[in-house]
Structures are given as C-alpha cells and as structure tokens.
Amino acid sequence: MAFEGGCACKNVRYTVSAEPVATMNCHCRACQYASGGAYTTAVVVPRGSLTIAKGTPKGYASKGDSGAMVTRYFCPDCGSPIYSDPAGAPFEVLKAASLDDPSTLVVGGALYVSEAQPWAQIDPAKPQFPKMPPRAG
Ligand SMILES: [Zn+2]
Ligand SMILES: [Zn+2]
User: Counting ligands in written order, which one lies closest to the CA of residue 75?
Assistant: First the structure.
C-alpha cells in the first residue's frame, strides 16, 4: 500500500497501492462545486490502484468536457469529497484533502484556468492550461 485516506467522519476509508502520477489544481466549474472553493487539488492515481476499504461513497455523475461521464464520489454522512471516476480514463482522481497526509503533495500546475474565478490564486511559476493539458504523444 502506498498511502491511504478517507472522509472527515471516517465512515469512508480507502487505500491506494500506487504513488500519484500527478497532482494538479483544477479550476473547472464542476470542481468548484465539488470543493466549495476556487479549485480542487486533484491527485491522479492509476485506475485499479484505489480500493474503498470501508463504507460506500455516494456518486454524482455529470458529463465532462471530453463528453464522457465523470462521477464524483463523496461521503453520504459528512459530505467530504473523496474522488472522481472519469469513465474510460486510465486513471482516477483523489481529492487532495482526503489523503491522511496531504502535506507532502507537490502541485504541478493549474488546469482549466479558462474557468477560474477572478479571485482564484494561481501560481504564476507553474504551468497553466486553459483546459486539460495536451495529450503527450
Ligand atoms: Zn464521512
Ligand atoms: Zn475540474
């Protein structure tokens, strides 16, 4: 196991068997709703590495920019956002604050700055993308 996490009330717990592939701040409108703030800090992990160890998160599905559905999971008891499952993607996306120890994360940059609030703080020293980063290869 690489790391674990869960929600504020501890009714939902998870384990992750791989290290994060990337950590990015996502400023898209859906992530604003999911976080209650200016952006979500998204911790990308390989699909299959995330295991829900306790509880049953509730999901809300909406259509993502790519046209595929994205289901955002949260604790039905305390409401903490936990992770997102973009259908068909080779990864899943944890909410940074759900990690037991988010303090060691290093944010690589900002996504969907085209939808960012004018009052959002964005690190000018790090890469910014209007939407998703262009696909490598
Ligand atoms: Zn909870
Ligand atoms: Zn987003």
Answer: 1
User: Which ligand lies nearest to the CA atom of residue 132 in the structure?
Assistant: 2
Q: Is residue 74 part of a domain?
A: yes
- The CATH number for 9's domain is 3.90.1590.10
Structure tokens, 57: 């998160």
Tokens of 135: 């696909």
Closest-CA residue to 98 (of 64, 130, 63, 53): 53
Mean pLDDT of each 10-residue bin along the chain, 137 residues long: 95 97 95 95 97 98 89 98 95 97 96 97 96 71
Ligand 2 geometric centre to CA of 55 (Å) = 25
How many domains does the chain contain in total?
1
Which amino acid appears at position 46 of this protein?
Answer: P
Distance, in Å, from the CA atom of 120 to the CA atom of 103, rounded to the nearest integer, reads 21
Nearest ligand to the CA of 73 is 1
pTM score, whole prediction: 0.93
The residue segments making up the domain with residue 72 are 3-115
Pairing between β-strand 69-74 and β-strand 13-16 as defined by DSSP bridges:
unpaired
